[in-house]
Every structure is written in structure tokens, then in C-alpha cells.
Amino acid sequence: METADTSPGARPLPLSAAPPRAGLHRFANPGRFLQLSGRVLPWLAAAAVLTLGVGLAWGLFLSPPDWQQGETVRILYVHVPMAWLAMGGYAGLAVGSILSLIWRHPLADLACRELSPVGAMATALCLATGSLWGKPMWGTWWVWDARLTSVLVLFFLWLGHAALVRAFDDTERGARMGAILALIGAVNVPIVKFSVDWWNTLHQPASVTRLGAPGLHVDILYPLLVCGLGFSLAFAALVLARTRAAVMERRIRALQLAAARRADIA
């Protein structure tokens, strides 16, 4: 028998016996979410491993060196997908925050809570690999230009959200504060994306998203796109697995609390 989360301050998840609601709320039922995600997660993880294995092998070992960057170009097979995930993941965090604040979607809080550590990890890898690439190409590990600084701000926003949602005993209040921070910080995402166009920076402009005339040769572009897809699938699988674990943890706590209450009554 399923039960709602009755821990202090937590937004209750609906009972599995409750009548389904229309729209996104029909996925708010923890039993339905666990059932659906349990079917999707193994396939998602397998696709991530397969795609990422092909992409990394292709990019790191089979693709040719760049005529300007030489072997250093291989860092981009990790750096560029991490940059995409840092920005795209934060856009997803903003969407989840809207679902939480406006539509009060019960699972949105949990998804956002589990998304922020993964997003912070992707952004940290973006910064680290960017520094590894910058040293041989620019002669320095770090420069305070618009792109690098805005990505660093994005990293602190990820960390701030992860810390804020866990800083309150009242979990609903923490989720609400985290959602507000996420929506305010979303202003930084277009700054990261267009900083190389708006300001004069050392960072090179977009090379992949120029439709019809990408700045990369196909021998480098294609494995980069495969790596991007593989890392995206792995990112989604990790967030989904963390969200499943959070739902199950809440259900276990709720069952334990209900059992303790029954024991007190008896």
C-alpha cells in the first residue's frame, strides 16, 4: 500500500489510489513515476553507455588532429558537451522551478533537487577541461573574459541551488527558495551563450551551431555530436536515477513514520 510523504515540511505526494489528474500531474503519482521510470532507465542507461563509448572511441582515438590545435582538440570531445549540459541542464532546472512554483507539481521539487548536483558536476568538468585546453592554446589556465566568468557564475548558481534546497528543515520552503534562485539565475544562461558575440573575448565563437557552415571539419564534428548525445543520455539517466532514489527514500520515511505512529497509538 502506497502512502504520501508525511515528513515535516514536505509537500505530500499523492496516493497511488488517488484518481489520475490531467496533464503533467498524472505523472506526479510516485507509484506511476517509479513504474514508468523503471522501464525507461535501463534502456536510457544502455543507450548512454553505447553512444558514449562509440563517441569517445571515435573522438579520442580515431579522429584526426586539428590542423591548428593538434592533439589538443581531443579535449573538446568532453569540454563542449559539458558546456552544452551546463546550460541546457540549467534551462531544465528553470522549467522544473516553474512547474514547482506555479503548478505545484509534486515531483518537480525532487527532480530539481537531484538535478543541481549533476549540473554542478557538468559545469565543473566544463571549467576544468576548458582550463586544460586554454593552457596550450592561450598560454594560461584562466582569463577573466566574459565567457569564462559567466560559466563560473553558472557553476556558483548550481552550487547555490544545491545548498539552498537542503538548508531548511521545511523541505517545501527550501524547494521554493531554490526555485526562486533558479529562475533569477536563468538570466545568466543567455549571457553564457551569447557572451562571445556581445563582447570581445579570447574564447572562440560558436563553431557547431552555425547552420550550414559549421566551423569544424566533419571528421571532428561528427564524433563531437555523438559524444554530445552520449553525455546527454548519461546526464538524463543519472538525474532520473537520483530522482527515483529520492522518491523511494521519501516513501520509506513516510512508511517508517506511519509505523511509529501506529506503535504509539497501540
From TrEMBL:
<dbReference type="InterPro" id="IPR002541">
    <property type="entry name" value="Cyt_c_assembly"/>
</dbReference>
<feature type="transmembrane region" description="Helical">
    <location>
        <begin position="180"/>
        <end position="200"/>
    </location>
</feature>
<dbReference type="Pfam" id="PF01578">
    <property type="entry name" value="Cytochrom_C_asm"/>
</dbReference>
<dbReference type="GO" id="GO:0005886">
    <property type="term" value="C:plasma membrane"/>
</dbReference>
<dbReference type="InterPro" id="IPR003557">
    <property type="entry name" value="Cyt_c_biogenesis_CcmC"/>
</dbReference>
<protein>
    <recommendedName>
        <fullName>Heme exporter protein C</fullName>
    </recommendedName>
</protein>
<dbReference type="GO" id="GO:0017004">
    <property type="term" value="P:cytochrome complex assembly"/>
</dbReference>
<feature type="transmembrane region" description="Helical">
    <location>
        <begin position="115"/>
        <end position="134"/>
    </location>
</feature>
<dbReference type="GO" id="GO:0020037">
    <property type="term" value="F:heme binding"/>
</dbReference>
<keyword id="KW-0201">Cytochrome c-type biogenesis</keyword>
<comment type="similarity">
    <text>Belongs to the CcmC/CycZ/HelC family.</text>
</comment>
<feature type="domain" description="Cytochrome c assembly protein">
    <location>
        <begin position="28"/>
        <end position="203"/>
    </location>
</feature>
<feature type="transmembrane region" description="Helical">
    <location>
        <begin position="40"/>
        <end position="62"/>
    </location>
</feature>
<keyword id="KW-1003">Cell membrane</keyword>
<keyword id="KW-1133">Transmembrane helix</keyword>
<keyword id="KW-0472">Membrane</keyword>
<keyword id="KW-0812">Transmembrane</keyword>
<dbReference type="InterPro" id="IPR045062">
    <property type="entry name" value="Cyt_c_biogenesis_CcsA/CcmC"/>
</dbReference>
<comment type="function">
    <text>Required for the export of heme to the periplasm for the biogenesis of c-type cytochromes.</text>
</comment>
<feature type="transmembrane region" description="Helical">
    <location>
        <begin position="220"/>
        <end position="241"/>
    </location>
</feature>
<feature type="transmembrane region" description="Helical">
    <location>
        <begin position="146"/>
        <end position="168"/>
    </location>
</feature>
<dbReference type="GO" id="GO:0015232">
    <property type="term" value="F:heme transmembrane transporter activity"/>
</dbReference>
<keyword id="KW-0997">Cell inner membrane</keyword>
<feature type="transmembrane region" description="Helical">
    <location>
        <begin position="82"/>
        <end position="103"/>
    </location>
</feature>
<keyword id="KW-0813">Transport</keyword>
